[in-house]
Amino acid sequence: MGIPHVYQGCEDKLTTLRQLCQRLNIELDQVAYCGDDLPDLAAIKRSGIGITVPNAPDYLHTHADWVTERLGGHGAVREVCDTLLEAQGHWGAVIDTYLHGRR
Q1: What is the CATH number of the domain that holds 36?
Q2: Burial level of 36, CB count in 10 A (0-12/13-18/19+)?
Q3: Environment class of residue 92 by beta-carbon count within 10 Å: exposed (0-12), middle (13-18) or buried (19+)?
Q4: N or C, which end of the chain is more exposed by having fewer CB within 10 Å?
């Protein structure tokens, strides 16, 4: 998929997220972070947009800015990506690329 930054097995996800932000020269308030478990709580709370899924524990819902309509493992990440692309005004170009094969 071409994802250049993958971190697995992190217990302290906020520290890892802060390190990634520093590496990318961005601020936490520029991040949309999606998570579904207790280790994600601090990153959800401190990101610009904290996102979780309906099948995450209730304590994540309390602290998230957005709870997706789709369940985790059933299109939630696609929902987040599509919504962000649309909000940034890029959705039409993405659809065009796939309709007309211009990549």
Answers
A1: 3.40.50.1000
A2: buried
A3: exposed
A4: N
- Parent domain of 73: 13-100
pLDDT of 1 reads: 58
DSSP at 71: P
What are the φ/ψ torsions at residue 99 (nearest 5 degrees)?
Answer: -70, -40
- The answer, as to whether pTM is greater than 0.85, is yes
pLDDT in tens, 38-81: 999 999 999 999 999 999 999 999 999 999 999 999 999 999 99
Domain-embedded: residue 31:
yes
